[in-house]
Every structure is written in structure tokens, then in C-alpha cells.
Amino acid sequence: MITRTTERTRHCRFLQPFAGTPVSPPPFWLMRQAGRYLPEYREVRAKAGSFLGLCYNPALAAEVTLQPIRRYGFDASILFSDILVVPDALGQKVDFIEGEGPRLEPITDELGLAKLDPIKAQRKYAIVYETVKRIRQDLPADVGLIGFCGAPWTVATYMVAGHGTPDQAAARLWAYRDPDGFGRLIDLLTESSVEYLAGQVAAGCDALQIFDSWAGNLPSVQFDRWVIQPTREIVRQLRKRGVDVPVIGFPRGGSNRSRRFVEQTRVDGIGCDTAMSVGTMKALASTHVVQGNLDPLLLVIGGRAMEDRVRVILDMMRGKRFIFNLGHGIVPQTPPENVAKLVDLIRSEGG
Ligand code: 1CP
Prior knowledge:
- By secondary structure, the protein is α/β, with parallel strands linked by helices.
- Helix content is 52%, strand content 12%.
- The chain has a seven-stranded parallel sheet with strand order 1-4-5-6-7-8-9.
- It starts with 6 loop residues before the first helix and ends with a helix.
- The chain binds coproporphyrinogen I.
């Protein structure tokens, strides 16, 4: 068990599990805690015009990061940005289409790779660092600030298909057809992600999360090659550069490989998806910080169904190095009052 203690740890409940201390009630934040379920987000979003316009506007991006902290008092905030900022910064054409999701000009071979420029990416990364600095200025001292990026595999699935896919077929096909060429895309993303994450920490982030939302469909050998290896490389290079903040991996759908994932990547914590049993989370918590895993749809329903499940998670994880979260992001139709109810429940019954 690696423990990470900093001066900040003493003031910040979110960081304490990483220093080896279980916290009671558990610290909590929610993936996609800033977003369309909040009326104040929709207001700022409309002002910003486009979604990427919001991501690259430090004042507005900082404002939407802070909105859920003011409303609910979460123990951690997460930088408002998106995993597709990395391909955009590298020079791929990226758009977010209202009601449809991201659209990218697909990169399907090495010719496409030549269009990506890690040096040029620095210019747009610098805008995000400015957002981090602004958040830090206005964030209460006891609230953690999480920086993030998408894992190379998940980002590549969007870059290759040009949009979100249920099966990630385009990336999987390239990886089978031409593992060396696809490996160069993954290497480029790995290098650029290290740069980007190190910059976020230099600007003031307390911890990092690597989102591998599409890790689940890969067969075992490909999971090792495209999920575990690049994540391990990111962690290794961050440590080599002296970046010493906790790193949380989120290999969504990788449940039965989670033990291998945490051991081989050397992340400090693991985000657990909705499919993971609380028993498996408990076992992982013997060596790592565990974060998760309420079904975001229970937050839509609320009431007894939500409360019963929250109690099961709180009971099973009591006394462990645990951070309460969802198993995936909040969905837009979530009633904000159900989030308030969840927060009350964790505070009143999580001790
Ligand atoms: O118009 C809007 O407001 C768009 C909705 C939205 C939001 C609020 C998108 C578009 N991205 C975000 C913010 C975002 N995305 C954050 C901000 C911080 C927070 O959590 O509050 C983070 C961490 C992400 C990460 C992200 N983006 C992931 C990984 C986590 C996950 O949800 O699996 C992925 C896969 C994306 C891609 C993405 N961004 C947005 C959309 C619609 C999509 C596609 C999702 C898909 O393919 O299903």
C-alpha cells in the first residue's frame, strides 16, 4: 500500500484515504457533478455558446466547476473540461453536436497521425491550466481539486470512429489489423496525456483521475496491451517527473480484471463501475483507495430504491479507505433534489 501525505491532506477529507486513513463518513463527489441536471449550469452553458467554447473559457469553466460545490458541499471538485479536449488540442477536428454528442474527423491510419501535433497542443492545454488556477483561487481550502484526462484507449476509440460507439469496433479493428500503427496513436496520446496531467498538477490539482470508459469490451490480451500498459506508462512517467499526487484509474467494465489493473498500473485508487459487486470493492480496499459505485439511474429514481442501495454501500465499506461516488456519470434527467438527499444520507448514516 502506497500512502501519499501532503500538507494539504490534513485539511482535505478527500485526500485522507490516500494517506492511509479511512474517513467517516466517507468523502464524496460525483462523476459529472457539473452538468445539465443543474439549472445554473444550463444558464452558463447557454452563455458560452458551444460546449468546447465553455471548456476553453477559464472564467466560465471555473464557475461551472464550483457550482456543485456551492450547492452540495462535495469533498472534491473536478475540473470542468472533457476528455476530447486532448484530440482537439492535438489538431483533430472536434465538434459537439447538440443532442447527438461528439463528432470528430476520423483518424484511421498513420497518415491521419501525421496531422497531430503535441507541441501545438500546449497552447490549448495552457487555457485549461488557467482554469485550474482560477478554480483553486475560489475553492474552499478543505475541498479537493481533481484533474483528469481520458485514458489513451478510450480517447482513441473516439478519434478512430469519429464518434461514440457501443462496441468500439473501429479502434479494435485497427488495433488487430495494424498493432504497431495503432500503438503509435496510443503512444502519442500517452505522452501528451502525461504532459497535460503534469500541467494540471503544476497549476493546482490535488489528484488525478484517468477515465477509461470503454475498457470493458476488450479481450484479456488487448486489455493488458491497450488499457493496462498505457495507464501504467502514464503513472510511471508522472512519478518520474516528480508528480506525486494520488492517481485514480477508472477502467469501466473491467471488473474482473480490477485486481490486475490496480497492481500492474500502480494507480493509488480505483473508480468502480455500477457492475462491480460491493464484495469486490471491499477486497480491493485492502490495498487501494476505492471509489464508487451507486448506479446513476438510482439517483434519477430517488426514494427507497436509492436509499436502500446507498445504505448497503455505506455499511459494506465502513472503515475502509473509501470515497463515495457513482458508478458512472450523473445523467441530465437527474432531479437536483435527489442529489441533496443523497448528500444528507451519506452525512447522517455514513459514520
Ligand atoms: O452540452 C453539454 O453540456 C454536454 C455534456 C457534457 C459534459 C457536462 C459533455 C459532452 N462532457 C461534459 C463534461 C465532462 N466530461 C467532465 C467534467 C467534469 C464533471 O465530471 O463534472 C468529465 C470528467 C467528462 C469526461 C468524459 N467525456 C468521458 C469520461 C467519463 C464518462 O462519462 O464515461 C467521456 C466518455 C466523455 C465524452 C463525451 N463528452 C460529452 C459527451 C456527450 C460525450 C460522449 C459520451 C458517449 O460517447 O456516450
